[in-house]
Amino acid sequence: MAYVCSHCGKKLKSLEKFVRCTYCGNRILIKERPNLAKEVSTD
Ligand SMILES: [Zn+2]
Question: Distance, CA 40 to ligand 1 centroid (Å)?
Fold first, then answer.
């Protein structure tokens, strides 16, 4: 499961070793969803 920092947008691989972004120190991380950016039409 990959996570994305909500501040700098860097990808973080695991949350078990750290509770904040290792790049900017931001604590708000978002679960990366592959389907989220996908636009799906269901006609
Ligand atoms: Zn960050």
Answer: 29
Give the distance (Å) from ligand 1 centre to CA of residue 7: 5
CA 38 / ligand 1 centre spacing (Å) = 23
- Cα 28 to Cα 8: distance, rounded to the nearest angstrom: 10
For residue 6, what pLDDT is reported? 92
Residuewise pLDDT in 10s, the chain (43 residues)? 788 999 999 998 876 666 789 899 999 988 877 665 566 677 7
